[in-house]
Amino acid sequence: MKFARTLLIFAVVALCGLAFAKEDHQVAKRDPHAQPVKTEQGHGGHGEGGLGATLVAILEHHLVDSDHMEFFGADIHLPTFRFGDYEFTLTKHRVWWLIALTLMGLMVWLAARQKTAVPSGFRNALEGLIVFVRNEVVKPNLHEKTDAFMPYFMSLFLGILFSNLLGLLPWGSSATGNVNVTAGLALCTLSLMVGMGVKVNGLGGFLHSFAPPGVPGWLMPLMIIIEIVSFMIRPFALTIRLFANMLAGHAVLAVLLGLIVSLMFAAPAIAVAVGVFMLEIIVALIQSYIFIMLTATFMGLTMHPSH
Amino acid sequence: MGLQNILNIEPGSILWTIITFLIVVWIVGKFGWKPIIKGLTDRENSIRTDLETAKSEREKAGAMLADYKQAMANAKKEAADIIQSAQDQAEKHRAEMETVAKEQGQKLLEKARVDIERESDLAKADLSRHVAELTAKATSRLLGRVIDDKEHEKLIMEALKEDR
Predict the structure, then answer these.
(1) Which residues partner with A86 through β-bridges?
(2) pLDDT tens digits for A13-58?
(3) What is the tally of structural domains in chain B?
(4) Could you list the mean pLDDT of each consecutive 10-residue stretch along chain B, which spans 164 residues?
(5) Is position B122 within any domain?
(6) Inside any domain, residue B3
(7) Which range of residues forms the domain containing residue B56?
(8) Could you tell me the end-to-end alpha-carbon distance of chain B, in angstroms, rounded to an integer?
(9) Ranked by mean pLDDT, which of A25-29, A174-178, A256-260 comes out on top?
(10) How many CB atoms lie within 10 A of CB A5?
């Protein structure tokens, strides 16, 4: 039974990988960036230059934001909205970010519908997650403010997690593999760091936290600069960490599956890709956890600078 | 847009992320997370209260059990004392009864012996008299004369003395 279950999981993951690879090669064939390289090299199909171009096309298709979305083979051109002089394009990553948030909302709505005194099934699992996030992540940093910020942290965790995982589906894409999305989330963290720092310690107290006690007067200007840089670099580190992890994971997967140009390459490429795919599931979870963990830690540091 | 633009910062995308995220956090927080977290917290508090109550009740029950055990031990001791006292009394009574019975037995025995002796003496006296009478009769027949009582008695007494 256990073996059959493992085999089933492996088969599903492998099928996802194959669908991913098939889609990549279809993309590579019609991608405008790939074609010139192929013709320049003078090789048809997957020659040495052709393979490189194919990989670049696959990476661009998967990792770069665009106003096109592919879904079950259909190429969807995303609309652009104009508001006077401003225009707003609904890009692929913006749509996948909305999908991730919608899925998160649906999950919470489904769990919240259960009104029984003793929870079961899905609600039970979600409550286990809430207890973990509250006791292990938020409470040690925010103390008495924990309950007020739990909805924010749970939404942040599940939003990032869904976004990370959606990139692993065929035709899917990780919005968190876009630096602008992670920057937006990190800016939310920065706002909370500053806002809660000022609210708890007052403006004077918050600014005073940039001048560490016990530092000689002549060293103080340098220390203040270092503290400010250290403070500002935290959201920057959050932005890059999540973005780079998602980008790298998907890039590795895309490259591995892009290598399936013949039967000789297919078997090892799929085997390694399945391994990386499973690793990516773990990375998706870990990165979501790290993001909320660091957000809570940074907020805790500004709220309680003496700690 | 190629791979070289992957690190490009687009304020529009950042704003889109922040606005959509905050709107979803507000909606999901109000209608989803808060009821779930409140339910969870209420249940935790209820379980904590129940556990504390159970602990307090258990302590009370423990104290009651100790009291009950003490009362049981006291009752057992009291019962044992009562039984011991009854046994002692019974033993004493039995000993008294035995003494009385022995005394009465002795008395009866003594009385019986006295009676037996008296009866024996009477029987002996009767026998002696009877024997004397018979002897006197026999002697009278042998001697051919009547011996009066005085003489008779004298002969008997002499004969008895010789027998002894």
Answers:
(1) A83
(2) 655 555 555 555 555 454 444 433 333 333 334 444 567 777 777 7
(3) 1
(4) 77 90 94 90 91 95 95 95 94 93 91 89 85 78 74 78 74
(5) yes
(6) no
(7) 12-163
(8) 168
(9) A174-178
(10) 9
C-alpha span between B45 and A78 (Å, rounded): 50
Tokens found for residue A151: 């909805």
Residue bearing the bigger pLDDT, B4 or A143? A143
User: Among A242, A237, A233, which Cα is nearest to A182's?
Assistant: A242
Dihedral of the alpha carbons of A212, A214, A220, A222, in degrees to the nearest 10: -70
| Set of chain A residues whose Cβ sits within 8 Å of the Cβ of B12 | 88
A contact residues 32-91, partner B, Cβ 8 Å cutoff: 33, 56, 59-60, 63-66, 88, 91
**Percentage helix, strand, coil for chain B under 3-state DSSP, each rounded to 5:** 90, 0, 10
Quote the mean pLDDT of chain A.
82
Instruction: Record the tokens describing residue A215, joined without a space.
Output: 């530092």
Tell me the residue length of chain B. Answer: 164
Quick check: B37 and A130 CB within 8 A?
Answer: yes
Sorted by where each begins, the domain ranges of chain A are 92-303
| pTM of the model as a whole | 0.70
The reply to whether B4 falls in a domain is no
Q: Which letter, b or e, does each residue of A162-180 get, where b requires 16 or more Cβ atoms within 10 Å of its Cβ? A: bbbbbbbebebbbbbbbbb
The rounded distance, in Å, linking the Cα atoms of A73 and A124 is 37
Q: Residue A75 contacts by C-beta under 8 Å, 6 or more apart in sequence? A: A68, A69
Residue-by-residue DSSP string for B82-148: HHHHHHHHHHHHHHHHHHHHHHHHHHHHHHHHHHHHHHHHHHHHHHHHHHHHHHHHHHHHHHTSPPP
Q: Does B33 touch chain A (CB under 8 A)?
A: yes
CB contact under 8 Å between A185 and B39, yes or no, is no
B10 shares contact with chain A (CB less than 8 Å): yes
Strand A68-71 and strand A74-77: the pairing is antiparallel
Retrieve residue A66's tokens: 């665009």
Q: Give this complex's ipTM.
A: 0.80
Question: What 3-state class would DSSP assign to B155?
Answer: helix
**B5 inside domain:** no
- Token pair of A64 as six digits: 């770069």
B105 touches chain A (CB under 8 A): no
> Which pair of tokens denotes residue A144?
């008495």
Q: Where are the alpha helices (DSSP H) in A135-262?
A: 139-142, 146-166, 179-208, 220-258
